[in-house]
Specification:
about 425 residues; mainly beta; Porin; 3 helices; about 5% helix; elongated; disordered N terminus
Length: about 425
């Protein structure tokens, strides 16, 4: 077997939108990791660690919270839809197996407010990962078929993790800001497996075994951030940033239920344990350059999944350390143009590359995507806007009977900026 997923051909039909993700690569671990940041930053390839503004929220780096002014209030709300298309060269039939899936869900909610001069506070609720797969395979070993009959395997999984961040950013000295945040992870991941043995004569199923693993996760972690303005004047701003999240054992409570029946008896096995999976150390460094009309940024992220999860997975799969690169930019012709609305729109584009944290059959999986989007201002004055973003990407390969995911994402975000008069006390009614 070339890899864990070579035995998981997918039915060529549209899937129901009850899953938050749809990829066979979510078979292991905590599933597919979501891109972080509000819609306008994801449209710029996700380059965000060095981005700093007092008008929009950047919850990827708590150090950015110190940029908010004393009489402002920021709010962000986002939704995201995706279409995923799977392709695999089946090792059983020799044909190309295809499947597709689509969904649309709430993506993130975030607020930010000042605590004091050069001190800001932010809270966000965002998805960390999603699990979603439905697959089947048929036993092809002639010895097994001759001894038992026709054997069919079914695999299903769904769930994921959500993260809540609450952080504070402080400008400790001029141009240098530090941030810290508490992160609370919670979620459920359920995986089901079923084996059915059919009589060779076609008289129905005479042996069936099913297993269900349910993981309940509830853990607290911390994160740290830094931003430093190399130069900051009326013409341009150059900011370097960094974030760090230490590794953490998830120690999820896992419940396993195995049920089997055959012509002789029924059996049930019930067990409780804790998983060994750990989140890795995550280190990101980035730089952002801003002028009146444009923004350019780039990030690099390293995660040591393989060092923190060095035990062996089944089916020739293992955790590996990963690298990710995000680059992108934004161009706004003229924010203050009173006659041409198109000049006030922000135009965005980006690119991102990353490794997947599980390796199958000795083959490292890569993901690449291009992004673009628009920021549509809601009124002439103020920074409130509707952000629309698009992402087209490819993950995996059809080599060695693995699966290639091709996806298209569409996001809508609402960024509200509370101007100073929100906090002014009226002198006259």
């Amino acid at each position: 077997m070339a890899g864990a997923l070579s035995c998981l051909p997918f039915a060529g039909r549209a899937q129901e939108n009850t899953l938050n993700s749809y990829s066979p690569y979510t078979f292991y671990g905590i599933g597919e990791l979501h891109s972080q940041g509000p819609a306008f930053l994801r449209s710029m390839g996700g380059a965000s660690v060095g981005f700093r503004s007092g008008y929009v929220i950047n919850y990827t780096n708590p150090a950015s919270y110190s940029a908010i002014s004393r009489q402002s209030f920021l709010f962000n709300f986002g939704m995201e839809g995706q279409n995923v298309y799977e392709k695999q060269n089946s090792s059983i039939t020799g044909k190309v197996a295809r499947s597709e899936y689509n969904s649309f869900n709430v993506r993130d909610i975030a607020v930010q407010m000042p605590l004091y001069r050069k001190i800001g506070f932010g809270v966000s609720v965002t998805p960390l990962s999603s699990v979603g797969y439905r697959a089947q395979s048929i036993e092809t070993d002639p010895d097994i078929v001759a001894d038992l009959g026709q054997v069919k395997y079914l695999y299903e999984g769904d769930g994921g993790l959500t993260q809540v961040k609450a952080g504070v950013g402080i400008e400790v000295v001029k141009n240098l800001s530090l941030g810290a945040e508490f992160i609370y992870y919670w979620g459920n991941i359920e995986r089901n497996f079923e084996t059915s043995v059919y009589s060779v004569t076609g008289d129905g199923t005479y042996n069936k075994t099913s297993a269900s693993d349910k993981e309940v996760i509830s853990r607290v972690n911390v994160g740290f951030g830094l931003q430093y303005n190399i130069f900051n004047d009326d013409n341009h701003i150059l900011t370097v940033g960094a974030t760090y999240q230490p590794s953490m054992k998830l120690r999820a409570e896992m419940t396993r239920l195995i049920e089997g029946n055959n012509v002789a008896s029924d059996t049930v096995v019930f067990a409780e344990s804790r998983t060994r999976l750990a989140l890795p150390d995550a280190m990101t460094v980035g730089v952002t350059y801003q002028r009146r009309k444009y923004v350019i940024g780039a990030d690099y992220t390293y995660r040591n999944w393989g060092d923190k999860n060095d035990y062996k997975l089944s089916n020739n799969a293992k955790y590996i350390n990963t690298n990710a690169v995000n680059v992108g930019g934004q161009y706004t012709p003229n924010r203050g143009d009173v006659r041409k609305y198109l000049n006030r729109i922000s135009y965005r584009i980006g690119y991102k590359y990353s490794d997947y944290y599980v390796q199958f059959g000795g083959r490292k999986l890569k993901e690449q995507a291009i992004t673009c989007g628009f920021g549509l201002p809601l009124k002439m004055s103020g920074a409130s806007a509707i952000d629309i973003g698009f992402e087209y990407g490819v993950r995996g390969t059809t080599r060695d009977h693995l699966v290639r995911d091709t996806y298209f994402k569409f996001s809508v975000g609402l960024s509200l900026f509370g101007e100073d008069f929100w906090f002014m006390k009226r002198k006259y009614d």
